[in-house]
Design goal:
- With 105 residues, the chain is mostly helical.
- It folds into 2 domains: 46 residues, no CATH class; 45 residues, no CATH class.
- Helices cover 64% and strands 0% of the residues.
- It has 4 helices and no strands.
- Helix 1 runs antiparallel to helix 4 and helix 2 crosses helix 3.
- The longest helix is centred in the C-terminal third of the chain and has 20 residues.
- The protein is elongated, with a radius of gyration of 19 Å.
- The two termini are 17 Å apart.
């Protein structure tokens, strides 16, 4: 008789994807303040100071997010590097969990 093995909540595909997201979060937090501003970040900050509906090389949302970041930066004391952190880490969970969840068997 073949019985299906019970999967622990600590070894489920979702938990594995969450572990990857936590590792990504730790890497971001450990390296966020080691470097100064990159030249692209300075360009985006300049675009955030002069908001427009369109830019040649990036979407307007980039400038709006930088403007939002620079507005709340004195209160939150976080650099513009929080943007990749808040968008990249949550996206790691569905990106890593979906292949394992779609597996049949």
């Amino acid at each position: 008789m073949i019985t299906k093995r019970q999967e622990s909540k600590w070894t489920s595909p979702f938990a594995f994807a969450l572990y990857i997201a936590l590792v990504k979060l730790a890497i971001h937090l450990l390296t966020a303040n080691r470097y100064g501003y990159f030249r692209d970040e300075l360009y985006y900050i300049a675009c955030g100071e002069h908001l427009a509906w369109g830019y040649v090389d990036h979407a307007p949302m980039v400038a709006w997010l930088i403007k939002l970041s620079r507005t709340f930066e004195p209160m939150l004391r976080c650099p513009p590097t929080w943007l990749p952190l808040t968008t990249g880490v949550p996206s790691a969970v569905p990106m890593n969990g979906s292949p394992a969840a779609n597996r049949s068997g």
